[in-house]
């Protein structure tokens, strides 16, 4: 049985209210559908962005692990490949089309949904947000994602992840020490913050020593109090294993 047909659990995200079973508050014909894996930092970026913009959406858990036996769609099925040729998450069905890259999705949401802009109006600040997004999404996360680590084996994968995250954080710390206020760029949550929070989570997951990065730690602490970010946390997702849920 295919992953698409197997999965019957559908969830509705109401910004600031966490996960709920699908409701009729928003028409199923117009509600965006997010294919997301709880541990995916790329999916988390989009969950944060959707929440900040208060866009109700249907979440369809999509597993990146072939051995998982749950109600998740499996990204390695032929049907999911038709949706996302890269067989990765996230994928967002919105406005009659499908978008399959977290940064492209965030830009699209910002260009079509004006509530809570993810990019500042000031050109310099806007460029700085984009710089931070690229540092994380192009210079750090791809080097420690599960597809790369799966080729290294368990013994080498943590050391590899620690090395590349630490290397990236050294530069990111310097950038953020000059750009940050309460958040990554000034005092408004931006696309940069949508990317920073999941990356710090990954750093902790791989046991990276974070003491050398006080600015990153302070920003993560500031962002951790935001209700939308808390609701979007991996441990609050419907496909999170019970042993991790709500921790």
From TrEMBL:
Pathway as given in its UniProt record: Amino-acid degradation; L-phenylalanine degradation; acetoacetate and fumarate from L-phenylalanine: step 5/6
Task: Report domain GST C-terminal positions.
Answer: 122-242
UniProt cross-references to InterPro entries, sorted A to Z: Glutathione-S-Trfase_C-like (IPR010987), Glutathione-S-Trfase_C_sf (IPR036282), Glutathione_S-Trfase (IPR040079), Glutathione_S-Trfase_N (IPR004045), GST_C (IPR004046), GST_Zeta (IPR005955), GST_Zeta_C (IPR034330), GST_Zeta_N (IPR034333)
Q: Which UniProt keywords apply?
A: Phenylalanine catabolism, Tyrosine catabolism
Q: Where is the GST N-terminal domain?
A: 30-117
Q: Which domain of life is it from?
A: Eukaryota
Pfam families in UniProt? GST_C_3, GST_N_2
Q: What is its EC number?
A: 5.2.1.2
Q: What is this protein called?
A: maleylacetoacetate isomerase
| Native species | Drosophila virilis (Fruit fly)
């Amino acid at each position: 049985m295919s992953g698409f047909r197997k999965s019957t659990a559908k969830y509705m995200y109401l910004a600031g209210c966490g996960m709920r079973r699908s409701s009729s508050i928003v028409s199923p014909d117009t509600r965006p559908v997010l294919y997301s894996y709880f541990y995916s930092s790329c999916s988390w970026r989009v969950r944060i962005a959707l929440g900040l913009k208060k866009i109700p959406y249907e979440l369809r858990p999509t597993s990146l692990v072939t051995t998982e036996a749950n109600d998740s769609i499996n990204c390695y099925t032929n049907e999911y490949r038709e949706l996302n040729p890269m067989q990765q998450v996230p994928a967002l069905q919105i406005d009659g089309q499908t978008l399959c890259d977290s940064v492209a999705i965030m830009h699209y949401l910002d260009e079509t949904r004006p509530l809570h802009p993810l990019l500042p109006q000031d050109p310099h600040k806007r460029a700085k947000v984009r710089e931070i997004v690229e540092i994380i999404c192009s210079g750090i996360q791809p080097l420690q994602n599960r597809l790369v680590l799966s080729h290294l084996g368990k013994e080498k994968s943590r050391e590899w992840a620690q090395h590349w995250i630490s290397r990236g954080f050294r530069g990111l710390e310097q950038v953020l020490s000059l750009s940050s206020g309460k958040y990554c760029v000034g005092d408004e949550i931006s696309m940069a913050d949508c990317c920073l929070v999941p990356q710090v989570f990954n750093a902790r997951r791989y046991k990276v020593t974070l003491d050398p990065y006080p600015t990153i730690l302070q920003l993560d602490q500031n962002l951790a109090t935001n209700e939308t970010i808390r609701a979007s946390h991996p441990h609050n997702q419907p496909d999170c294993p019970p042993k991790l849920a709500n921790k």
